[in-house]
């Protein structure tokens, strides 16, 4: 078969069930030779490669156009595997026990003898680990039998992919195979917490809220302010998740040449005159809003309006992660 034929291959599957034998075979065949798979998880679609194969990991960076210094998350089938790759302190153990499988990534000191390639951790002495909850994803990782490196399946700096069609739009022929399990249900990336010393740090708000994490830890999370002696998530660049259209936050009204990203039952003034409107959650439910965020941004970006005006989003629960993504989408580029 010539390289140009039908690439990427797309296979549909039910995300809520373990993969069948044919799908396992197809995914393993691609990963085993250093190929890239568009892999659905409960948060967003990942661009997956064998985390123990440096060439395969290098292809991820090339496909995304990602700065080499930005490390990747290694995905495992079960929490028990974490101790093979890193050192879990008490906080890390508590979080792993409570939130794995699920939208939680732990950054912990890396074991010298881990099989995870240095390119995954971009040479850092810490490693980011996660056990995704989607039964299809876990089954595929288990079948492959090695950790899988997978950043979100978007080009660097752009909106994350929450459907297989987004993966095609973002990465096209750079992906060998896409597993299409429909839209992801959380819709936002995992929460990243660094457990390096006695002070756990929130590196990225995400699918598990700060309130839930602090309840389990029994202490507040510190916030990553970048720089200094604290670990940081190098991927948290100021401009990120960026649509082509400029974004205006906390808009209490929308102009006639603007597209409106609304939230809740009360629409901002001028909503009826806006070029287009997407409501993240007409009832004001932050979980529903998180699930709809990236699709709504993509849809409004396609309109080509002068600006996307974003209604105020409350900063509690998943609102912290939603606001974080929107602030980055609005950042000067
Ligand atoms: O939900 C998710 O986490 C998705 C799905 C596919 O699992 N993955 C994801 O990966 O969002 P990515 O590569 O888009 O974001 C990973 C973030 C980056 O900001 C990166 O800088 C940070 O994790 N990170 C990875 N390893 C790190 C480390 N050792 N120390 C600090 N930050 C790290
Ligand atoms: Mg990403």
Percent strand equals 15-25%
Radius of gyration (Å): 19 Å
- Fraction of helical residues: 25-40%
The number of helical runs is 9
Oligomer: single chain
| Strand line-up of the largest beta sheet | 1-8-2-3-7-4-6-5-9-10-11
Low-confidence stretches: 227-231
What series of H and E elements makes up the topology?
A: EHEEHEHHEEHEHEEEHEEEEHEH
Mean pLDDT: 92
**C-alpha geometry:** globular
Structural class by SSE content: alpha/beta
Heterogens: threonylcarbamoyladenylate, magnesium ion
* Number of extended strands: 15
Q: Main sheet, how many strands, which sense, barrel?
A: 11 strands, mixed
Amino- and carboxy-terminal Cα gap: 41 Å
Please provide a brief summary of the model:
With 333 residues, the chain is of the alpha/beta class. The chain is built from nine helices and 15 strands.
Describe the structure.
With 333 residues, the protein is an alpha/beta fold. Helix content is 28%, strand content 18%. It has helices at 21-32, 54-64, 82-85, 90-99, 135-144, 164-171, 210-217, 286-303, 319-330, and strands at 9-12, 37-40, 45-50, 73-75, 104-109, 126-130, 148-149, 177-180, 191-194, 201-204, 222-223, 247-248, 258-262, 276-279, 307-310. The strands form two sheets. The protein has an eleven-stranded mixed sheet, sandwiched between helices. Strand 9 (191-194) and strand 10 form a beta hairpin. The longest helix is centred in the C-terminal third of the chain and has 18 residues, at 286-303. The structure holds threonylcarbamoyladenylate (TXA) and magnesium ion. Threonylcarbamoyladenylate binds at residues 41, 43-44, 46, 70-73, 103, 105, 107, 121, 124, 126-128, 130, 132, 150-152, 189-190, 192, 203-204, 231, 233-236.
